[in-house]
Write a structure and sequence with these properties.
162 residues, alpha/beta, three-stranded antiparallel β-sheet, globular
């Protein structure tokens, strides 16, 4: 799904959401320069893989958190982790670097990606801001709605403390 298809999908599902259009951003430092309505709900997304390229994970955390991949590996009993390549990102999720988003799992027809979502997104106001598969906008929606959409797609998702 591209940006417009994500918008249409949310509208057709009657999912409450707000859209903030902005210049293209490629990292959290650039996002911090934007005037966004819910900065405390903005998400950072890491697309990683194991050393055998058999398992792929999308780790979605609050914008200001750091993820220690060695610690994550221990907690979730995975093989050694590293960031997935841009080729893997495009082939599996149909995304470019800088546009990584949980909405990308809708492009993962083989359901190779497991999503790990920071449980802090469920704390009030329980909103999350993510790219609509394009880094020129942020979509704000209720975290539970995102979880339900990911599950409905058939993608495995786990709510975790990071």
């Amino acid at each position: 799904m591209n940006k417009q298809e994500v918008y249409a999908y949310l509208k057709n599902k009657h999912i409450w959401h707000e859209i903030t259009e902005h210049e293209a951003v490629y990292n959290m430092a650039e996002v911090a320069q934007l005037d966004i309505p819910y900065p405390e709900s903005d998400a950072k997304n890491l697309f990683v893989r194991d050393d055998k390229r058999l398992n792929f994970y999308l780790i979605t955390v609050k914008h200001d958190k750091r993820v220690n991949l060695k610690e994550f590996r221990k907690q979730h009993q995975t093989r050694q982790l590293t960031f997935a390549s841009e080729d893997d990102l495009m082939h599996i999720m149909g995304l470019i670097s800088g546009a990584v988003s949980p909405f990308g799992v809708w492009n993962d027809t083989e359901k190779k990606v497991k999503v790990y979502l920071d449980k802090e997104f469920l704390a009030p106001p329980a909103l999350i801001g993510i790219h609509p598969n394009d880094n020129t906008a942020t979509v704000w929606l209720k975290t539970q709605d995102l979880i339900d959409l990911i599950k409905e797609h058939g993608t495995e998702i786990e709510i975790i403390e990071i």
